[in-house]
Design brief:
425 residues, 2 domains, globular
Length: 425
Amino acid sequence: MKNILIITYYWPPTGGVGTQRWLKLSKYLIRNKLKPIIYTPSNPTSPIKDLSTIDDIEKGVEVIKKDIFEPNKFFSIFNSSNPSSHILTKRPTSFWGKVLIWIRANFFVPDSRCLWIKPSVSFLNNYLKKNPVDLVISSGPPHSMHLIAIELRKQHNIKWIADFRDPWTNIEYFDLLPLMKKQRKKHVLLEKKVIENADLVLTVSETWSSDFKKNRLKKIEVLNNGYDDDDFSAKRNHNSYDFKICHFGLYGEKRDHSFFWQVLRNISDENPDFNKKLKLIFAGEVHSNFFLNLESYRFIKKIKYHSHLKHNDVVDYMLDSDILLVSQADTKSVMGRLPAKLFEYIGARRPILAIGKKDSDLEKIISKISFGWFVDFGNKNLLKQSINEIFSLNKNYEFEDVTSDYSRLNQAKRLIKIINSLCEK
């Protein structure tokens, strides 16, 4: 049995999509006779807790933890609420807010978990002397996880896979960070060091894979996010009256497109039956003007909002939805951005309405499934046609079986082939 050390910041009881990737993959790795050993902080600072995810840790998965200190704990002194998961992407208005963001961006490179690197390397060095492993996988962001792994690879000569769930310097908000020139260069050099020293780089979309290849990186594989069949095994009779449009996860200002609300308002005014049945269900962090926008389009009474839901509650909502909404921001990384929730939407096999960039990886995936509708940015006519088409469907319409390429089981099988190939070299 091969022992695989997985270094990840996100692990139960931390909730959110960052937790799901390795929580689910470790489940199917161990069912296929590999032993995952998870290394994760014992006291992470996270805005999302989901105790229900603890029940999803597969029996036999070993979890080792170490305390972490991170500046988010310092931020909480100035902010009574939990820190936002996207604090660096927001533009602070106060003087002290700008100062704190500047300090965090320039003194904590590559991210606020960098103070965990040295203690983790020391801790894992001692662990590995007594408990050797066949391979290390680091999952970022936060990209500090890769910097822990690179030291272990160097000192123990272990095979190493660097898993990029998001880009590093190519992520949409990187150019907006208030970085000094020296620190910006440091990010570039650290990223280059990671991708050049890893035995293999994993990423989650074809476009991002191509971006890595532009840097002459040949040792790269795409391992999309996925859905777990076990989560979607329940059958549900859909509510025959309401027409529910659902969105889960971050809904920032750049993802909140005015043409979507304009078209929804137009359909509601033209079709009293649609207007009567329409319900909006949003769960996750939304931007500061979200509810003002709803009020201006006269949808405030239609909304049911949850700041956070347990993962199993999200799945219940997905299974009872009429439209599962994916809304992309038109940013530099949009061509390869595939939200993790997209694959869970696919697992739910309910109608998916995706707003994004033409010819993007998102459009290519949506075009392959029978229950997907893709609308390019600003295309009001196609959006109206798509919503009306979905509204006209029978509530319990059975869609064709979706490809199993995106199931966590099949993703794990692909990963096992990659691991075996690396370990045999």
